Amino acid sequence: MIDQKNDFAKRNPIKNQRVRMITGDISTDDIIPARYKHMYTEPTQLAPHLFENRFPEFVSTLQLGDIIVCNGIFGIGSSREQAVSTLLAVGIPMVVAPAFGRIFFRNSWNLGLLAIEADIKGFREGLAVECLINEGRFIAETSLADFYPPSEQMLAVVHAGGRLNYIFNQLPKNPSPKEKEQRII
């Protein structure tokens, strides 16, 4: 589990995020090659291999808080969570694409990565964007794209660092002996 709260989900607007463009449909094996998924268990160990096969120099050019914008379907293929956890480990808080692989999309929200479906026509490499997350809008020099804003609960899950952290935070901090007996884990 990544112990990283995604504070981007709590900020509105999210300002000055640098766009990193990726072209084509992207599989989870493109994000993190399968040969590493069994070698390493920690996302930080996988991080140097992010996009290694498709975009070999990409990871060395990343800055904390960059957002990935893809012009194809992002995250198709495997159901392994390493694709999402590795993106979080390198400091990517958000991925924007016209469509996502179903399991990747679900894993993103469960682990605390903002996965936003939007028309990406106005985005370009290096553009500094502002995201009005609660209103469902990206802005740069002008309005770039609208999207369906995530629900308050989805944003709370992302801010908590994922669904498990969100649920853990909902539990009583010091349960009484009776509550301990009733709790089933």
UniProtKB/TrEMBL annotation:
Record keywords: Lyase
A single MF term (Gene Ontology): hydro-lyase activity
TM regions (residue ranges): none
Occurrences of domain Aconitase A/isopropylmalate dehydratase small subunit swivel (ranges): 62-118
Pfam family, one: Aconitase_C
Coiled-coil region: none
Signal peptide residues on this chain, from the entry's feature table: none
Similarity-based family: Belongs to the LeuD family. LeuD type 2 subfamily.
PANTHER family assigned to the protein according to its UniProt record, in alphabetical order: 3-ISOPROPYLMALATE DEHYDRATASE SMALL SUBUNIT 1, 3-ISOPROPYLMALATE DEHYDRATASE SMALL SUBUNIT 2-RELATED-RELATED
Protein name: Aconitase A/isopropylmalate dehydratase small subunit swivel domain-containing protein
Organism, scientific name: Photorhabdus laumondii subsp. laumondii (Photorhabdus luminescens subsp. laumondii)
